[in-house]
Every structure is written in structure tokens, then in C-alpha cells.
């Protein structure tokens, strides 16, 4: 599957000169997280009216109490239908606040309840801690949900795909996910939101001393992929784009229903830009519409995981 490279959207291209190398290996994680919050805040608008409730809660597991944020429409069209959202940030950055806008909009526009997961972060908590936190929330939600989907962007997409391969869920949504062990020295896309050094750092601190396997990198699975119906989107100017393309190919070979939604003129991390950048906002709207369609397809014929 080959897509011709198209120019970056002008409203994104004008932001790129402001991006500087993060120098993550020499910057303390707390400083990185503060810088990331500042970066996200530059593009964030005040949340609009939400016809529902937003409640911070915890899911208790034997290992750790996991913070979650529940977005519940006041009159949900699909009561008992839940999307569990796993935020991106390289397993190092991000939290319930930095990634508040997207799950809020999904709940508002689709009528689904959305549960956003504040999983533990590396390097303080490398694999399997983030994975275990997310899996615990999925198990907790799935115990009572009539329909459940996993959704994640970037590192969250990795977690979503990995957990969906081992847990019975009805659908998954992967937004520019990282699904393979990094093995490239290509720096041609540096300066566009995700540098090669960023990828190497994030992977190293998440992996820790673990030998890579399909739970760490779903594309390492040598067998036909086990996955629910899938919506996957990539960004054209993103070093993780080949992971998404290869995963789509593997899903098709495994007879998994997959909808591929490319955004060829965007860069990695466009979801955090969407409040302030029109091209990213349009892509976000398209993904939310596609989530609603995926939900409709996976419930129309009484599809059940039970």
C-alpha cells in the first residue's frame, strides 16, 4: 500500500519552525511532561458545552488504583456502549487533562460513554505497568458494558491494539499508532512532531529490560492477527505511518474488517493541534464521524463478543 507524499497542510507547516529537538535523554521526565502540557495548552480552547457529566474516578485493581475520567452524555443514544480511550505521549507524556478534548467530543457527538485512562507512565513505570493499568480498566468496563471499543493515539494506539489482541472487545480505533520495534535510522521526517530520537527514547524507557514480543509491538505477532473490526488512521508526514500501513495489510490478510483513513497532509500528533489548527480539526471531525459509523456497523447485526 503506497500513498504518494503530498505537501504538509499550510496551517501545520507554519508551526514547524517553532519545534525544537526535545533532547529527551538529557531532560528529566517531569520537565518533559511540563513542556508537553505547555505545548498542548497553546492550541487548546476552553471546552464547549457538554450535555452530560464528566466525572473523575478510579478503577481499583490488585496492582494499582487507576485514575479514569468518565464522559457520559446526559441522554446517551447508546446506553451501555462504551469507548475506552488510551492517550498518546510515548508512554511518558500526557494525562487525563492534556487529552481531555478528544474524548469529550467523541462522547458529545456519538452518544457513547467514553472512559479515558490515566495509566502509569515510563520511565518510572515501564512495561508492563501501563499495559496492566489499561487492561484492568478494559476488564472493569467490559464486565457491564453491552458494547465496548478501544481507542488510542500513538502510544495509546499501541496499547489498544495489544490489549484488543488478548481481550474480547467489539471494535478498535487506532490513531497514528506505533506498532513495531523501531529499527530505522531515517531522520528525513525529523522536525515534524516526532523525531527519530524521540521514538528511540520512548521505546527504550517503555520497554525497559523486556525482550520485545507481540504485547510490546503487535506487529511482531507471527500469526494471523486477532483483532476486532478496526478503524485506523495515519498521518502522511509521520515516521510511524509504515506501522499503520503494515497493520492494515496484516488485518486484511487475517480477514479482519478494517477501515483505513489516511490524512496525508498532516504530521504525527495532529490530534493535540485540532482545537487551534483547521486542517487538524477537520481530520478530528472525520475520525469522530468514522467512530460513529464503526459503532453502527458493529452493532447493526447484533454483533456480540459474548
Keyphrases for this structure?
306 residues, alpha/beta, 8-stranded mixed β-sheet, 9 helices, 8 strands, globular, disordered C terminus
Task: Explain how this protein is built.
- The chain has 306 residues and is α/β, with parallel strands linked by helices.
- It has helices at 10-13, 29-43, 101-110, 129-142, 155-164, 196-207, 241-253, 270-273, 278-300, and strands at residues 52-60, 65-73, 81-86, 113-117, 147-153, 171-175, 230-237, 258-267.
- Strand 5, helix 5 (155-164) and strand 6 form a beta-alpha-beta unit.
- The protein is globular, with a radius of gyration of 18 Å.
Largest sheet: 8 strands, mixed
The count of DSSP E runs of length 2 or more, i.e. the number of strands, is 8
Based on CA atoms alone, the radius of gyration comes out at 18 Å
- Catalogue the unreliable spans: 302-306
Enumerate the strands of the largest sheet in spatial order, edge to edge or round the barrel. 1-2-4-3-5-6-7-8
Question: SSE order, as H and E?
Answer: HHEEEHEHEHEHEHEHH
Distance between the termini: 34 Å
Beta-strand content: 15-25%
Structural class: alpha/beta
Helical residue percent band: 25-40%
Task: Please state the average pLDDT score.
Answer: 94
Ordered list of secondary-structure elements with their pairings:
Elements: H1 10-13, H2 29-43, E1 52-60, E2 65-73, E3 81-86, H3 101-110, E4 113-117, H4 129-142, E5 147-153, H5 155-164, E6 171-175, H6 196-207, E7 230-237, H7 241-253, E8 258-267, H8 270-273, H9 278-300
Helix pairs in contact: 3-9, 4-5
Amino acid at each position: 500500500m503506497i500513498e504518494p507524499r503530498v505537501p504538509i497542510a499550510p496551517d501545520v507547516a507554519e508551526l514547524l519552525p517553532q519545534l525544537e529537538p526535545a533532547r529527551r535523554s538529557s531532560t528529566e521526565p517531569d520537565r518533559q511532561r511540563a513542556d508537553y502540557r505547555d505545548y498542548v495548552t497553546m492550541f487548546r480552547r476552553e471546552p464547549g458545552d457538554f450535555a452530560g457529566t464528566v466525572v473523575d474516578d478510579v478503577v481499583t485493581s490488585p496492582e494499582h488504583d487507576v485514575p479514569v475520567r468518565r464522559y457520559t452524555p446526559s441522554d446517551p443514544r447508546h446506553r451501555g456502549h462504551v469507548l475506552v480511550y488510551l492517550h498518546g505521549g510515548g508512554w511518558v507524556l500526557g494525562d487525563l487533562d492534556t487529552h481531555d478534548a478528544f474524548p469529550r467530543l467523541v462522547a458529545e457527538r456519538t452518544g457513547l460513554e467514553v472512559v479515558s485512562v490515566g495509566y502509569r507512565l515510563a520511565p518510572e513505570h515501564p512495561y508492563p505497568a501501563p499495559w496492566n493499568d489499561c487492561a484492568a480498566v478494559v476488564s472493569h468496563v467490559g464486565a457491564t458494558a453491552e458494547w465496548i471499543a478501544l481507542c488510542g493515539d500513538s502510544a495509546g494506539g499501541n496499547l489498544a491494539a495489544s490489549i484488543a489482541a488478548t481481550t474480547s472487545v467489539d471494535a478498535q480505533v487506532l490513531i497514528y499508532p506505533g506498532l513495531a520495534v523501531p529499527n530505522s535510522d531515517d531522520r528525513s521526517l525529523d522536525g515534524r512532531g516526532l523525531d527519530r530520537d524521540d521514538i528511540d527514547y520512548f521505546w527504550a524507557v517503555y520497554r525497559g529490560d523486556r525482550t520485545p514480543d507481540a504485547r510490546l509491538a503487535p506487529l511482531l505477532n507471527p500469526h494471523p492477527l486477532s483483532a476486532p473490526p478496526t478503524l485506523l488512521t495515519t498521518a502522511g508526514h509521520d515516521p510511524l505511518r509504515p506501522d499503520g500501513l503494515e497493520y492494515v495489510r496484516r488485518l486484511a490478510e487475517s480477514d479482519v474488517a478494517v477501515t483505513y483513513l489516511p490524512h496525508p497532509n498532516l504530521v504525527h500528533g495532529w490530534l493535540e493541534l485540532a482545537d487551534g489548527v483547521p486542517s487538524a480539526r477537520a481530520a478530528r471531525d472525520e475520525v469522530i464521524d468514522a467512530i460513529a459509523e464503526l459503532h453502527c456497523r458493529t452493532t447493526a447485526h447484533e454483533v456480540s463478543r459474548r
